[in-house]
């Protein structure tokens, strides 16, 4: 029997899922909460007006549907305004990863075919170094924290605030196809050039709706973020739209704080002075905040923080809880927009022992609404969700990127057999909770067995003198690979031998086997990180191979 399709009335409004609909949601009634960024504190009414002014500024700069606007900025009110104005005029927002090398930035800007660049004064030297090789850029707008212009060796249209002040306050944002590309950014892999990931208006709207629901319902002791909360991202806005949460926070009309350049002391003071209730970041950023000098004078109780990008270790989670912070975990990747799973804490979970609660918080969480997750064997067989079987995590959801920009063959690899392949090894428990075992490329293969570097890191992190840790596998003639640990400790009497002694208890209780104890432990002052703050295991392995 054929599927029945009803014809709409010719006069019915075909409501497109566009980013402009997020801006005209509940926040349009907001009278109290503000956008806070450096010296700027303004209302949601002013935010709406500024977005219209920016749209007119973009139009005057020759930007229209299908053009690409690149942004090189710290986390700011300007970035938030670009999140809306650029795609709402039908253009594509390219959030440039300013932590890449100049050569990689050049590659991404040419590959994305950028037409206009909004560049902060701090990044003008990068543009000056690569400008002669930029193939499609037609103009530049300068961004400044104090409305000043930095001298450049290239002509600019003007300074952001000055241009907005001169622009009209009215703009009629048009309807268009909801499947139009809204944003693009670049994700770095283990080899080759960065890959362009892109998302449509429809995907971002659906992801935002799902994010609002997830933030509102995943804890029985109150939402992670509500209208009465105060939100501050500590995930770069160039990275997966700061996990898409600025869109959700704007739709909800909450107070938003944008911290500018990340400085641990400044971040901690903002948490304290602005009474921030919700943030999100990678573990290394949280560790930096907790170790800052300002942390000693800061009451963190009531701060809920969502950890992603890398696994939350038991040690860091315990430290956060002792300070009154409620840590939650989330799972996703650049290609997934990113939310796929998030910690779910029910009333029953809050009655568990502190250790059992901790285990719940450091897992990757349960799938979000409209998210379908499976684990597959290497030959594509679906494995049971019994908490024991482990395989590659594959996903389906309506907001996952459909391919890579200008590289359909790599998109085909990502979507092999109709499921997005994450490259992560995981188990899924009967209650749906996802436990990430390791990246396929990071799992340590020793003596015919697989050892999870993430599990070892979590166990080592519970050592009372360990501040941070990373574990990688290095070649071994006899065993194939053996684990090596890099450890940061602030205790001057700390010995690397104490790590082996600490792990013996987990060998005795059967958590790990004796071969999992690292063959070497290096005491270091810093652990290499990627451009988005994740531990850079590729670089660590390369450095160890040269020793």
Draw up the topology in text:
Blueprint lengths: L18 H5 L10 E4 L2 E4 H17 L7 E5 L4 H12 L3 E4 L6 H10 L4 E5 L3 H7 L8 E5 L14 E2 H7 L14 E7 L7 E6 H17 L12 E2 L8 H4 L1 H8 L2 E4 L5 H10 L4 E4 L1 H9 L12 E4 L6 H9 L3 E7 L6 E4 L4 H4 L3 H9 L3 E2 L4 E5 L14 E6 L11 H7 L5 E9 L5 E6 L4 E3 L2 E3 L1 H9 L6 E9 L3 E9 L8 H12 L11 E4 L13 H10 L1
Parallel strand pairs: 1-11, 3-4, 3-5, 4-8, 5-6, 6-7, 10-11, 12-13, 13-14, 24-25
Antiparallel strand pairs: 1-2, 8-9, 14-15, 15-16, 17-18, 18-19, 19-20, 21-22, 23-24
Helix pairs in contact: 2-3, 2-6, 7-9, 10-11
Written description of the protein model:
The chain has 547 residues and is an alpha/beta fold. The protein has three domains: 19-199, Rossmann fold; 262-369, 3-Layer(aba) Sandwich (Rossmann fold), CATH 3.40.50; 444-546, ANL, C-terminal domain (GMP Synthetase, Chain A, domain 3, 2-Layer Sandwich). The protein contains 18 helices and 25 strands. The protein has a seven-stranded mixed beta sheet, sandwiched between helices. Strands 12-13-14-15-16 form a five-stranded mixed beta sheet, sandwiched between helices. Strands 2-1-11-10 form a four-stranded mixed beta sheet. The chain is globular, with a radius of gyration of 24 Å. It starts with 18 loop residues before the first helix and ends with a helix.
């Amino acid at each position: 029997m054929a599927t029945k399709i009803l014809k709409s009335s010719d006069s019915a409004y075909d409501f497109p899922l566009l980013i402009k609909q997020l801006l005209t949601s509940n926040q349009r009634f907001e009278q109290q909460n503000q956008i806070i960024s450096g010296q700027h504190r303004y209302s949601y009414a002013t935010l709406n007006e500024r977005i219209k002014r920016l749209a007119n500024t973009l139009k005057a700069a020759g930007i229209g549907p299908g053009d690409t606007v690149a942004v090189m900025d710290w986390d700011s009110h300007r970035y938030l305004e670009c999140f809306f104005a650029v795609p709402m005029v039908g253009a594509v927002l390219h959030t440039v990863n300013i932590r890449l090398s100049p050569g990689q930035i050049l590659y991404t800007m040419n590959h994305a075919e950028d037409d206009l660049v909004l560049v902060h004064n701090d990044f003008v030297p990068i543009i000056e170094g690569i400008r002669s090789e930029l193939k499609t850029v037609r103009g530049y707008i300068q961004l400044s924290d104090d409305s000043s212009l930095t001298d450049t060796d290239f002509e600019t249209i003007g300074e952001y605030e000055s241009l907005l002040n001169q622009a009209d306050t009215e703009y009629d944002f048009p309807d268009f196809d909801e499947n139009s590309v809204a944003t693009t950014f670049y994700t770095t892999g283990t080899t080759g050039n960065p890959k362009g990931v892109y998302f449509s208006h429809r995907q971002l709207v659906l992801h935002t709706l799902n994010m609002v629901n997830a933030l509102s319902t995943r804890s029985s002791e109150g939402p992670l973020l509500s209208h009465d909360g105060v939100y501050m991202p500590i995930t770069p806005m160039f990275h997966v739209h700061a996990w898409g949460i600025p869109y959700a926070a704007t739709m909800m009309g909450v107070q938003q704080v944008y911290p500018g350049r990340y400085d641990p002391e400044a971040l901690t003071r903002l948490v304290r002075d602005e009474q921030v209730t919700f943030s999100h970041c990678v573990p290394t950023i949280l560790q930096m905040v907790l170790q800052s000098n300002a942390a000693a004078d800061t009451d963190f109780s009531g701060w809920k923080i969502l950890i992603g990008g890398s696994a939350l270790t038991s040690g860091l989670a315990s430290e956060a809880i002792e300070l009154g912070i409620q840590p939650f975990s989330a799972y996703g990747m650049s290609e997934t927009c990113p939310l796929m799973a998030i910690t779910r804490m029910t009333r029953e979970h809050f009655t568990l022992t502190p250790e059992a609660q901790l285990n719940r918080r450091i897992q990757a969480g349960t799938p979000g609404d409209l998210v379908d997750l499976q684990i597959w064997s290497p030959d594509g067989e679906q494995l049971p969700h019994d908490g024991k079987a482990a395989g590659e995590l594959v996903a389906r959801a309506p907001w996952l990127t459909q391919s890579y920009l200008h590289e359909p063959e790599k998109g085909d690899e990502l979507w092999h057999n109709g499921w997005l392949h994450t490259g992560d090894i995981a188990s899924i428990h009967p209650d749906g909770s996802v436990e990430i075992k390791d990246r396929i490329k990071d799992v340590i293969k020793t003596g015919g067995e697989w050892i999870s570097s993430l599990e070892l890191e979590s166990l080592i992190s519970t050592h009372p003198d360990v501040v941070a840790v990373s574990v990688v596998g290095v070649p071994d003639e006899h065993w194939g690979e053996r684990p090596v640990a890099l450890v940061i400790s602030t205790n001057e009497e700390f010995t690397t031998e104490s790590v082996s002694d600490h792990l013996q208890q987990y060998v005795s209780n059967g958590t790990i086997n004796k071969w999992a104890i690292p063959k070497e432990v290096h005491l270091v002052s810093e652990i290499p990180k990627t451009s988005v703050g994740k531990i850079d295991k590729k670089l660590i392995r390369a450095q160890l191979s040269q020793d």
